[in-house]
Amino acid sequence: MYVHLGGERIVRASELVAIFDVSIEQSSRISRQFTACASKRKNVEVIGEEEPKSIVITTRKVYYSPISSSTLKKRTHQLPDV
Question: With helix as H, strand as E and coil as C, how does 25-65 read?
Answer without folding.
Answer: HHHCHHHHHHHHHHHHCCCEEECCCCCCCEEEEECCCEEEE
